[in-house]
Amino acid sequence: MSGARSAAMAQNRDQAMAHMNATTHRLGYSRALSAAAVLSVAMLSGCAGPHDQLTTGGIPDDYRARHPIIVTEAEQTVDIPVASTDRRLTIAQRDLIRGFAANYISRASGPVYVLSPQGSPNSAAAFQLRNQVRAELTTRGISSSKIINTSYAAAGAGDAAPIRLSFTGTTAITTQCGQWPKDISNDFANQNYYNFGCASQNNLAAQIANPEDLVAPRGMTPIDAQRRNNAIQEYRTTSTTIEDAGDSGF
One short Pfam family name for this protein (predicted)? Predict the structure, then answer.
């Protein structure tokens, strides 16, 4: 009897220990779930908090959008330097006029203004050269009826004021450079500064020969039918073998 009783007591003890272990395991699992839930709530509340200004992601920051090149109407001017002893146009002055005329013909069709200075030491020489400038513009293809002679007030004594040629036409421009709306020494947004890319955009706009190319493409020119026929005929009549290609060194 004592042996049977001992075995029964041992069995009851083992069952009690197994029950305690299972209960402890369930309590530990429940506590782990509770801790995970608390951590998730804390993370979500952190996302809803104030944004960290030092953290940046894929922020759009394109200088081409900040300094866009636009096609607009603007005044085009060329200054022709004139000495007080000049009596006729020099080769360099004629080159300036030729370039101005070519620019006008490609960009505008309105009036051309020839402005001569008044009140400067070279005003007499500029007045004498004005008619020569007008004749040079006419020679370069600008109608005489579109050329308007006028004058402007020079700064005063000692100023070698130029003859100024002017017309209004389409041109490609962008925003003015040198603007600093923010203090870059106190900016931690990890973005390029406002003036970044402005000079590159201005240089690109100045190099565009025909601003209308930014608006729409030009029409295609007619094909060279003779050249096309020659190329097709050569393709049809010429036969090249593998041996010929090897002998040619390719």
Answer: Pilus_CpaD
Cα 95 from Cα 106, distance rounded (Å): 17
Distance between CA atoms of residues 7 and 3, nearest Å: 6
Q: Exposed/middle/buried for 26, CB within 10 Å: 0-12, 13-18, 19+?
A: exposed
Of 1.10.238.10, 2.10.260.10, 3.30.1330.60, 1.10.760.10, the CATH number of 73-167 is 3.30.1330.60
119-172 pLDDT, tens digit per residue, is 888 889 999 999 999 999 999 999 999 999 999 988 765 567 899 999 998 889
Q: Rounded to whole angstroms, how far apart are CA atoms 101 and 118?
A: 24
**From the centroid of its chain, how far is CA 207?**
13
Q: Where are the domains of the chain?
A: 73-167
Give CA 59 to chain center in angstroms: 18
Within 10 Å of residue 154's Cβ, how many Cβ atoms?
Answer: 20
